[in-house]
User: Fold these one by one.
Assistant:
Number 1:
Amino acid sequence: MSAFDLVIRNARAVTAADQFDTDIGISGGRIVALGRQLAAGSQEIDAAGRYVTPGGIDAHCHFDQPTGDGSVMADDFVSGTRSAACGGTTTVIPFACQQKGQSLRAAVEDYHRRAAGKALIDYAFHMIVTDPTPQVLEEELPALIAEGLSSFKIYMTYDALKLDDRQMLETLAVARREGAMAMIHAENADCISWLTSKLIAAGHTAPRFHASSRPMLVEREATHRAISLAELVDVPVLIVHVSGREAMEQIRWAQGNGLRVYAETCPQYLFLSAEDLGCDDDFHGAKCICSPPPRDKANQTLIWEGLENGVFQVFSSDHAPFRFDGPDGKRVHGENASFDKIANGIPGVETRLALLWSEGVLAGRIEPQTFVELTATNPAKIYGLYPRKGSIAIGADADLVIWQEGDHVVSNAALHHNVDYTPYEGMRLRAWLALTLSRGEVVWDGQTPLAGAGRGEFLACERPRPALRRRRQEELAL
Ligand code: URP
Ligand code: ZN
Ligand code: ZN
């Protein structure tokens, strides 16, 4: 009888703290031993000469999320989690989105039905709070947080989703009281709608004007306001999908002044720019429409610096899958719809880790340990999944990635999502994923997705330690 179900031999293991050469002994889906010359496993994998990192946690992705405008997300929990697994991600946290007028619990129950029996890898949920009625704030939200949905997103833009400042304060006060992590989409809705009407009136309708309708100021103002509201309530918050300098300056200011403001950025802000939104007669730019929009090369450089110097704690995909062709994706409002009618969001759940490993670690911009922090350990801590997820440690789930260095050209034909394009088509990378293990099971062997639909488990999240408020001397009566 073997000592382990599986042993990974000769790994160059990377955690958020260290790199070390080790064998990894796995039994019952968990890491049970780390050390040299471990006893035999029933199965053995040789990782000699290769880095092994914790399976990625994609803490911001959208699968099968109802949209309300007729558009349909191309990825459900089967294709979305398959794509994630093939890209080295072993845990996803998509969003159960409340529709205005709907109970939050009904939104969560609906989302459970969409995921159950489908997900290939483990998953948790964030909530999106769009209608903070007394019933939601006093009963549903506290109960759902206690049941393991310990984070929620608040929007400051999009008519169907946004909260006003008063509603934000009331919702943040619940996060503070209950110990949940509040995530904020920070863009000023009125600035966007005013600029949009001016642009449309002037006949500027092409996809590239999406960026003109959401300049950095719009993000900066909302980021500052979100930070101020969180400071007033005295609650930690996380600003999602930060695109560049102006929002970063607000975040750095807050962090420097002792406020617990966390921040997330995404591949699109490192690798895309407003130029990718095309020219006046080019609808292909719709493929890169997301909010906030990609900025310019100088901002890409600043985002790289923020990943390296600690402004950002989390690197997520914000995978929002809409097909370019067909009636219910990017063109839901017609072949050449104006920029404000094009479905927002770009795909990226499968390319997130390889882009950052290749252009971040192997290109010498960030340390391997920083990569692990940003893609696995910090998301696990910030969303209450640590130490089960997010590290290579005894007792943790055996969610692991083995890297294969060598030339790899990104091609949508080789990806596993259900979207008909990738914004990174043709990019030359220095590595790709040789193998993904989810709870000790090979779910991607470098060639073929191997997991069956429904093997993924729902993860109830703890209240995250980084969301715990610090006591102030003059406690607010909230
Ligand atoms: O454009 C984006 N980012 N779409 C996804 C939804 C969101 O706001 O994260
Ligand atoms: Zn958002
Ligand atoms: Zn998103």
Note: The mean pLDDT is 97.
Number 2:
Amino acid sequence: MSKRVFSGIQPTGQGHIGNYIGALRNWVRLQDEHEAFYCIVDLHAMTMPWDPKVLRRHTTEKAAELLACGVDPDRSVLFVQSHVPDHAELQWVLTCVARMGELRRMVQFKDRSRGESESVGVGLFTYPVLQAADVLLYQAHGVPVGEDQRQHVELMRDLAQRFNSNFGVTFTLPEAWIPEVGARIMALDDPTQKMSKSDMETRPSSGLMLTEDPASLTKKIKSAKTDSGTEVRAGDGKPELTNLLTIFSAIEGVPVPELETRFAGSGYGAFKAALADAVVAALEPIRLRYEELMGDPGELDRMLFKGAEKAAAVAAPTMDAVRERTGLGPRAVLTPQ
Ligand code: TYM
């Protein structure tokens, strides 16, 4: 039996090329060889202030985006986290297994709370425990993610191991499957920061959206920050070019040294124009398919409910075992009044 994979994405606005290169295109590849579970994590999206209507809309839009990227609900299980209540239930049990110290060390929490840990929501602190519940519920081996999620996957392993040794072997230990190229795509206007959905709200030119129109993509790439030199080369002292070459390499499947040879002596202008063409060629089919799918949001929601039914059937035996081993006992079966 092939290894089971699980991954998630937050419905917090339009996805960007970093999501695509770091995670989504691997989701698409993996669904052929593995039993794949892909989850739109709406409960995680509540860890920052949210508007209920916007959350609902973004959840449907995220489904369209994932399908447009090539996630296929016939070859994988695509669903919304809150549709399967076991995620929240297992999170509670794991919260009681997790330690303050290990959560305090999470880099994402430190970044998002920006040192104001007294005033941010508690959900932001326990975020990685919910993420652990997501994966452990499905006994997944592989977690295809970008580099920024490595620490969260290590925490899941630690929690699974602790639970297994305290209560008996219940969970598979997952591992992060991080791509060799493009695991951390940086912002176009600042190569010291990763490209991120939240930064794109205040600095739109920092990232390339998956559903952005070609003219806008081209403009952003042409005005992406570069150093004052002329040499199209990756490596020390050239973080901007390294990032642009990485994007090129990932979407064309051509190694960076080959691109360096191709663009030797051609200058940044010609290189950026070629990169813009490559990005537009990769993203244009995604944008068109996304728009088509958004023409029938009802159909997307029906597809998500079917996915949740399949997911719930796989999650339930794990949750039953957890309940039994931790002394909670079986769930009540409610008889209709
Ligand atoms: P999210 O929604 O922030 O990101 C979705 C995926 O995109 C990857 N990613 C990137 N990869 C390369 N370069 C970038 N600049 C970049 N930005 C984002 C992320 O690594 C991620 O794989 N916590 C997760 C969601 C989650 C999850 C899970 C993931 C919830 N439960 C269980 C795996 C398993 C997150 O915030 O993803």
Note: Residues 13 and 50 are 11 Å apart (CA to CA).
